[in-house]
Fold this protein.
Amino acid sequence: MSISRRTVLASGIALPLTAPLAACDRTSAEPIPPNVPPLKSVAPSPFGTAIKALQIDDPDWVALARANVDQLTPEWEMKMEYILADGLDRPRFDRSDRIAAFAKAQGMAMHGHTLIWYAQGKEVFEGLSGAAFDRAFDGYIAAVAGRYRGKVRSWDVVNEPILDDGSALRDCHWSARYGQDGYILRAFEKARIADPDAVLFLNEYNQESIPAKGVQFLKLVERLLKAGCPLQGLGLQSHLWIDIPEGVIAAYMREVAQFGLPIHVSELDCTLRTENRLDLRSQADRLALQSDRVTELASAFAALPERQRFAFTVWGLRDTDSWYRQGQKDDGRDKPLAFDSFGRPNPMAQALVAGFRT
Ligand code: G3I
C-alpha cells in the first residue's frame, strides 16, 4: 500500500514545492488577489473554520473569524487527546468550554469534533475489558455529547473509520471490542441518547481522491442506514490535493448526495505540496490548480439542494494556522488555506467565492 499523503506529510519529510522560493508567505512576484467579500456572506450555508482555544487570544484571528465565519469546529481540544489527557476519571473541558463560550458570545454555531476516532483513546482504554470498557465508552460519549447539548448543532460522532487505501474498515481498539460496524453503531446510538437534537455525522477524508475509499465510504453509509443507525449527516473532510483530476470532486459530491442526507464539507484545505520529489512546478502553477479544485468543490456543494448544504468548513483561516504548517512539517512555503499569515486573501479565497457564485 503506497504511503498515504497524510503519512508522508505528517512524517515531516520536507517535500520540495519547487525551485527555491521565498520563505515568506508572499513573494513580490506574486499578484495579491483582489479583495474578496466576507466568505460567510457568499457561502450557500453556514461557513466555518477550525479553531484552537489559543486563537481566542489573537485579536487578528478573532477579527478575521468574525468577518468570515459563522460556525466553529474545535480543531483538537474537544477530542479525547485533550479531554482525557489526565485519564478517564479526570476529564478536562476547560478549553472546549472556552471555545463553546466564545462561539456563543460571537453568535457563531459550533460543530462538535470528534467523539470516537481510531487515532485516539487507545492508551486510556488499555486495560479495560468487558463491562468496564462499555461503561467507559458509553460514559465518555454521554459526558461529552451531554455537556455540549444545546451548544453544538452537530457532531462528528465517528471520524475516519476507513483504511487509507479504501480496502476495508480500520481495525482499532474500538472495533476489537464491538466489531468494525459495531463500534460505529454503538457510538451513534449513545450520541443520539446524549443529544437528541444534534445532527450526527460520519466524517472521512480522501473519498474523492482515492476512489476505493470513496466506494468503501458509500458502502459503509448504506450498511449503517440499513441497520437503523441514527446517521444523519455525511462529512467530506476535503483535504484536497492539487493533482486530483478535474471533475472527480464534483462527481463524488453528486454520488454521495444520493443518500439525501445533509453534507458537511468539514475540513477543507489544499496543500501545494506533492509526493513527487521531481515536481518542479512553480508556486503559481500549483496555486492555479488549487484554485481549480477548490472552485470545483465549492460549486458542487452550492449545487446541492438547500436541505443538504449543512455547512462548509475550512480547516483553519491563515496558512500559518494550518496543521500543514506546524512543527517540522512546515517548509514555510505551503499555502493550504484561504488567507496568508497576515490575514490577506489567498487565491483560495477567490476560488471559494467563484465556486459559491456559480
Ligand atoms: O498546542 C500544544 C502545545 O502546547 C504542545 O506543546 C504540543 C505538544 O504536546 O501539542 C500542541 O497541541 C497539538 C495541537 O494539534 C495543536 O497544534 C496536539 O499535540 C496535536 O495532537 C494536535 O493535532 C491535531 C490533530 O488533528 C490531532 O488531534 C491537529 O491540530 C489537527 O489539525 C488535526 O485535525 C485532523 C482532524 O481532527 C481529522 N481529520 C484530519 C485532520 C488533520 O490531521
